[in-house]
Amino acid sequence: MSITRFILLWWLVIFCTGYNAWAQGLMIRNYNVKDGLANATVYAAVQDKDGFIWFATPTGVSKFDGKRFRNYAKKDGLTDNDVVKLAADAKGRLWFFTLNGKLSFYDHTYIHNEDNDSSLKFNSRSHYMQYAFEADAGFVYFFNSNNRIVTYNGKKTEYDKRDIETNFLYLLRNGRVYRPLQKAFHVNTLHDPTNPQQEISSVCPYPFASENADTVRNGPILMVRNTLYAYTPQKISCFFNGSDWGIKDEISNLCIDNDNLWIGTQRALYYIKGFFKGDKKITKLLDNHNITSLLKDRDGNIWITTFGDGVYYIPYKNFYFSYLDNTNGLYSHSIFSISKDKKNDLLLIGQNAGILNTMSANSVIRQFTLDTTSGRNSLLAILPYKENEALIGTDNGLLSFNTATQKYSLLKAVKMLKDVDISPAGKIRIAAKNQVIALDDYEIADLDMIVTSIASVNDSLYFVGTNNGLYTCTDGTRKLKPSANDSLRTLSIKDLKWIDGYLWIGTSDQGIYVIHGDTMVKHLSSANNLASDICQQLYYDGHQNLYVATNKGVSVINVKEQHITRNITSNDGLMSDDIRGVYADDGILYIATSNGLCYFKGDHLPVDTVPPVIYLNNIRYGDSTYLPGDNFVHLYKRKASFEAEFGTIVFDLPELVEYQYNFSGDTTNGWVTTMSNIIPFPDLQPGNYKLMVRARKYKSDWSKPLNLNVNILPQWYQQWWARGILLLAGLLVILVVLRFIVKRIKQAEKRKTEYNRRIAELEAKALTNQMNPHFIFNSLNSVQHLILEKEEKQALNFLADFATLMRQMLNNSRKSYISLEEEIAFLTRYLELEKIRFAHSFTYHFIMEDTLKDYTIYIPPMIIQPIVENAIKHGLAPKNSAGYLEIRIEMVDDLLYCSVDDDGIGWDKSNSIKSSRLIKHESTALSVIKERLQIIKSFNGSVGKLEIIDKFKSGFGNKEGTLVEILIPIVKML
Q1: Name one GO molecular function term (predicted).
Q2: Domain boundaries 43-166, corresponding CATH code
Q3: Residue 383: which residues within 8 A CB-CB, separation 6 or more?
Q4: pLDDT score recorded for residue 166
Q5: Omega of the bond prior to 686 within 30 degrees of 0, cis?
Q6: How would DSSP label each residue in 902-962?
Q7: Helices 773-788/820-837 angle, 10° precision
C-alpha cells in the first residue's frame, strides 16, 4: 500500500505548514505523488459506478481503490493529459473533460476516444466541455465553453440541432429530462432570459425551513462568487452567504454531508457541522490550501482535492470521534491519566513534565504545572476524592487539586510513586517502588520487590501487586502476606481492581486473572480475544464494564459474565494502540493514548459490516499480461505460471483486507485464505477451471465470490488425435525395435550354429590330423611284421589295442567335453602303441597335481594328442638314442595347464629336416588347436593358450628338446 500521512486538524489553533491543517475532532489522511497519485495538483474527483475514486490532474487521471493508484495518460487513450473535469453517468461511463475539447470516456477496462470509437469523432474547434447532463436511452449532453450544447447518443457526437437558447439554465430548467452529472455550477448571473417567470431571492434565511433544506440537498446549486443559491425552475433562493460566516474568498466548490456543509475556497476549507439543523459553528480547515473540489463517496468518506498538495481524505468513521493533542490545546501528545469532576464538568488530563490539562464543558483548556521536579515527573493517576477535589499521583509525590478554584497542594512527597487507591471510607493508600504507604498512618518500607499497584477491599484490608506476585495486608498486621494461591505468587502485576467481591489482576505479560477468595476463577488472555497480554491499566465504570488498557488497544470486559465483549483499536479510530488510561462518563468514553486523547460515544462506535467490492485487476500467463474478463482462454505454455491479480475497493483500512480463493468450484469447502491479492498457479495443465475469489474488510462479512472461468487449451501434441498418432508411432517404433532385436537374436543363433558347424569341422580336422596316414600305415606294417615273424599273439594284441584306440577316438570326437581320466587313458593307449611301433625307442611319464584328484575335470577332446604325436614323430623318432617324454598336468587358476616335454632333437632342428608335406601337416594341426581355443573363448569367455619352446635356445642350459605348454579351458565338478 502507498504510504499515507495522517494529519490532525483542529479548530482555532495556529496554522501548521506541510501536512498539518486544522479541524476539531477530525483525522485527515493525505495522498500525494509519492503514494502513486499522478500529480500533486488535482482538479476534480468523482466516484464511478463500480466505486473507484477518479482524480483529474494536469498529467492524466488516477483511479484509486483505497490501496493503489492506477494512472492513465495520453498513451493509455486520453485525448490530452490535462484533464480538468470528470463526470460519471448512469451507464457506468466515466467522461474526461480536457482543454482540447475532445471527448473520451472510460468503460469496460479501457478508454474510448475518437481513434478507437468512431462515435466520438467531433470537431470541437478547441472549445472545451464544462458541464454534463444525461437523459434517457443513454444520451449525454455537454455544455461547452462556447455556450453550445453537444449531444452524444452512442452512435455519434454532434452539436444539438434543435433551436435551443444556448444557456445551460435551459437544461437545469428541464431537469426531469436533463439530469445534471454535477451538483454545483459556477455562474456570473442568476438571470435566465428563457425563464422570465423565475423568482430570485437574494436573502439568506437561517435556519432553514425543512422544505428549503430538502431543496438544497436534492437540487442543483448555483455558485456566485461567495454566495450559494438553491435552484428550482420556479425560484432561485440564497441559502449561504460567505460574508455572513466570515468567508471573503470566492467559493470554488461545496459538498453536502447529511446535515453538514463543506465549503471550499482558493484559500481554505470550511466545515459547518449541523448547518441544516441551525448550528452556527464554522470550522476552518486546510488554511492556505487551494481547494479544487469536494466529494462525498457512497460510504460517507469526504475527499478534498487541492491545487498542489494532493488529495485529503476523511474516513466516515472519524466523524464519530473527537481528538485532543498538542496541536489543539494540550501540552504534548503523550497522555498518562484521565479523569473527570462530574460536578464541575471538568475533564482532567495528566501528561508528562508535571502538566495537568483541564478542559471545561465549553472546551476551554487550561494547563497547570504540578510537579516541577527534574527527571521523570509524569502524572500517573487521577482519582476523584472529596467534593471539588481530586487526588493526583505523579512520579514524585501525591497532590490535591481543587476543581472549583483550580488550585493544587502537595500532600506527600513520594519517590517513584506507582499507584494510588482510596478505601470506601476515604483512607488513601500509595504504592511506590519498594514501599506501601498508608497516608498519615504508617509506611511499610525497604521491601525486596517492586510494588506496582494497590487495591482496597475495605478500610483495613487491601491487596498489593508487585513484580513478584500478589500480597495481602491489613492495617493491623502492617505486613505483606503472599497469596495463598501458589500460581499468583510468580505473576508480574501491573494493576488491581476490587469489584463486588472479586479481585481483577492485570499482569505485564499474561493477561487478566480473576480471583474470589483464594481461588482463581478466570483467566483471560489473547487466546480468549484479549487485545494483548500486556495490561497497562484497569478501569471500572461502576456499572458492569471493566476496561483493560493494553499496548494493542482497549478490551471491554463484562464483569458479571466475565467475558470480553469487544476490543477497540486504532483500526476503529483511536489515535494509537498504546493505551495509558480509560474513563467513561454519561455514555462518553475517553481513551488516553501515547498519541493523544480520543473521546466518543462508546455505544455508537461505527462498524462497517458491508462486504467490499472485489474486482479482477489483470491476468498474467507466462510473460504476458491480459486485461480482465469473465473468461480466460489461452493455449497451454510449458512451465508457464498463471496468476490472477485481484483488488478491492476499500478506502478505510485497505491493508486489513483478506482474500479467499477456491479453484475447485466447490463453495462449501476448499477455501484458501491469504492476505495477498495475487493468486498464483504454477504450470497450470490444460483443462477447464473455475476460480472463485471473495474478500472481506475489517469486521465485515465475506463478499459475494467473483468468478473467473479459465480454459487452458492443449497444444497440438496434447490433443487426443495427436496423442493417438504418437501412441501409434510409439507402437510402430516398439515393433521396429522388437523386430530388430529378434533379428539380432536370430543372427546370433545363426552365428552360434555356424560356430558349432565350424567346431565340428575343426574337430574332424583334428581327428584327421591326429591319426595321420603314417601312423596307420606304420601300425599296419608293424602288425604284418609280427605275423611274418610268427608272433601271432603279439600281433593280435597290437590289433586289439589299435582297434580300441580307434573306437575311443571316434567316441570322444562326438563329445564337447570329456573327463581328464578319459583323456589320460586315451593318451596312454596311444603312447603304448607308438612305443611298439618305434621298437621301444622312448619312454614316457605322466605327472599330475594331487589336487586334481578331488575333482572331475572336463576338457575339450583330442586337443593334447596332436601335440604328443608331434613330440614323438618330430622330436624323439629322429634321435639316435633312446628318448624321454614327460606329460605334466596341473591347475592354474581356473584353467588346466598341460606341458609336453621331450628330449628330442629340438623344434628348430626338426623344422629344418622336415619335408614340406610334414611341415604343412604340422602347421595345420597346431593352427587347428589355436582356432579351437579361440572359439571356446567366444562361447564361455575362458582364454586358452598354446606355446612351443625350443629348450636349447630358450635358456634351459645344454638341454635339447621341445617344451609345448597349453592352457585349456575346463569344466570343474566336485
Answers
A1: phosphorelay sensor kinase activity
A2: 2.130.10.10
A3: 339, 390, 391, 393, 420, 421, 422
A4: 60
A5: no
A6: E-SS-HHHHHHH--HHHHHHHHHHHHHHHHHHHHHHHHH----EEEEEETTTTTSTT--SE
A7: 50
Give the separation between CA 744 and CA 723, rounded to whole angstroms: 31
- pTM (2 d.p.): 0.71
Which residue type does 441 have? Answer: D
CA atoms of 234 and 203, how far apart (whole Å): 16
**Dihedral angle computed from the Cα positions of residues 765, 767, 772 and 777, in that order, rounded to the nearest 10 degrees:** -140
Q: Which residue's entry shows cell 625350443?
A: 950
CA torsion, ordered 357, 359, 364, 369, to nearest 10 deg: -20
- CATH of span 613-716: 2.60.40.10
The reply to whether domains 324-601 and 613-716 share a CATH topology is no
DSSP at 801: H
Separation of alpha carbons 9 and 22, rounded Å = 3
Q: Write out the CATH class of domain 324-601.
A: mainly beta
- Averaged over successive runs of 10 residues, the pLDDT of the chain (974 residues) comes to 36 30 62 96 96 96 95 95 95 94 92 94 90 90 90 91 68 86 90 85 81 85 93 91 93 93 95 88 91 95 96 89 87 94 93 94 91 90 93 95 94 94 94 93 93 95 95 94 90 95 96 94 95 96 94 96 94 92 93 94 83 92 89 90 93 92 75 91 89 92 92 84 86 93 90 74 55 59 71 79 80 79 88 81 90 83 83 85 91 89 86 57 66 70 80 78 88 64
What one-character-per-residue DSSP string does 252-307 give?
EEEEEETTEEEEEESS-EEEETTGGGT---EEEESTT--EEEEEE-TTS-EEEEEB
Q: Enumerate the domain spans of the chain.
A: 23-39+256-320, 43-166, 180-245, 324-601, 613-716, 819-973
Distance, in Å, from the CA atom of 875 to the CA atom of 907, rounded to the nearest integer, reads 7
